[in-house]
Specification:
This protein has 106 residues and is an alpha+beta fold. It has one helix and six strands. It has one domain. The longest helix has 17 residues.
């Protein structure tokens, strides 16, 4: 019985140490710039390859009517699909024509 318990413990320890350890994800880059003219840029990149970046500006900054000022945002985000292992990349523009994403997987 003792031998069986000892064997079970050894087997369990072996199993646990053989299991893939979750990688600790760290921040590689984290930048944010906001300018007086309303333009901005942010970048966040993680050690597992996940990233998100976005930049924006006012397309017609001299337009006196605030209703007619157009905010344009361009960005992208990228991550690994845990099910398929594929890298999913979404690039988008959001402007007066709406949100226009373009998705790619590889
Ligand atoms: C990135 O930096 C900003 C400003 O220093 C901070 O507020 C934010 O929490 C940071 N993001 C992460 C994911 O740590």
């Amino acid at each position: 019985m003792k031998l069986l318990v000892a064997f079970a413990i050894v087997a369990f320890v072996g199993y646990v140490s053989a299991a893939p350890k979750p990688q600790e994800v760290t921040i590689v880059q984290n930048e944010s710039v906001i300018n007086e003219d309303g333009s901005f840029r942010t970048v966040l990149e993680l050690s597992d390859g996940t990233s998100i970046s976005q930049s924006g500006k006012i397309k017609n900054p001299t337009e006196p009517d605030p209703e007619k000022k157009i905010q344009v945002i361009e960005g992208s985000y990228k991550f690994t699909d845990a099910k398929t292992g594929e890298v999913v990349n979404v690039k988008y523009v959001a402007d007066e024509n709406g949100y226009q994403p373009v998705l790619s997987r590889k």
